[in-house]
């Protein structure tokens, strides 16, 4: 590391080696998160000459990106600098159409067009950083081009991949290598507590907490959220332990709005194990793209007659079909189905990650069907942001899964997530640079006193959190309630129960004296999960229809007349997540 930010970060241990004194540092921009979206943003910011600091809860290579198996959905052509790859009859407009179809009427056309059009440049940038993607022979002349596969909801072969089913790992490797080689300073094993804001609401920094409970503050006029998803709201998920919705909670406390939280995509094929909780190995959708089919315990096809694309239908369709099928308990099995990939030639070479996970669970995918079940996978909603990452809060930006850009709508198209993180990450960096150049940033020495949720004048976590953030329900209670009542197949009664369970769990924590408990990373995460769970339940309760990932058993039909629109949520003056309309009424 080099530069003034690096010096402050390198001094960190010396400043905190005694009985936990607080510390301060400064940067032009702080990026929270070190996945594809965060590192793409940080690297572009570095190229723009800005002093950027990446803050991550784990180590630099951790996060959800490395677990992505399928690939990057992108239409490539020779003019894009992508290595002379031809489009093979595909087009950006076709990719946009597939994205909109999967999004079930809630995608924003302009956002879709802008992000999808940036795919070729994003892939070219990754290759410039050293990413190596799988290749295949093209035609009879032995020429090589990037190999492409097809996943659910796609009308063409446009998903590029690396290491067979290790695309995320290769993307993360290349970005980490570029970040370390480019001297991007990183503060590892620190969780963000809250945004520091002026009385007028402008971002001027962020408070953080290390694994020992020592708080600090980084002063910066720009804060980029790249914190990933919220899969840990549920008992079974494809997400790592880091995915606790921290960015959504921080943004709410900073005065931002969130949208489309009710649309949580459940991946239909996560490796099943009896009673397993936490992160479960993913069986990539590309396995079905290569010919695998879903069957029940009797061997009957699960997707027969359900959708014209059968096993390659969009994820929301497949996950819902699996849940409906299990309700009948065919063959006496009511908690999982099977993915029959025994007909795929060269399975071990094409899907080494899936093979290794199966073998660790005692399953031979070459000889027997793989037991699978749906699990929480991707948050289609998040912090309302443009395709340049800007939010309505001055100085606050959001990129990647934590953001709601309008690309995904009610259901994400397979392999559009890495695409979004890479494209919006680069655009956000340019937006930050432009914003900092056009206005006079507030310097660390003159941070004004702030008021309201998220406004702080010290790195003390107890003072930085507003009343809503102090409400912490035990994680186990949150996960059980959300898995039982707010996963696939919701209804009004169940959502009401989920809300009551959350309220009782918070009340119980208050009664046990939790307000006097020291803040730790786990408690910060649990506070975020509690707040985000309440926001999600509020959104799901209000949407009285079924659309995309949001399936209401008491309102099974899609209602375009009333509900072809997104819902926004913000914190009310009393610190509770409510629909924006209700928040406005309470304020009045």
UniProtKB/TrEMBL annotation:
The keyword Membrane does not apply. GO terms for molecular function: L-aspartate oxidase activity. Its EC number is 1.4.3.16. It catalyses: L-aspartate + O2 = iminosuccinate + H2O2. Its cofactor is FAD. Residues 475-570 form the Fumarate reductase/succinate dehydrogenase flavoprotein-like C-terminal domain. SUPFAM superfamilies: FAD/NAD(P)-binding domain (SSF51905), Succinate dehydrogenase/fumarate reductase flavoprotein C-terminal domain (SSF46977), Succinate dehydrogenase/fumarate reductase flavoprotein, catalytic domain (SSF56425). Belongs to the FAD-dependent oxidoreductase 2 family. NadB subfamily. This is L-aspartate oxidase. It comes from Prauserella salsuginis.
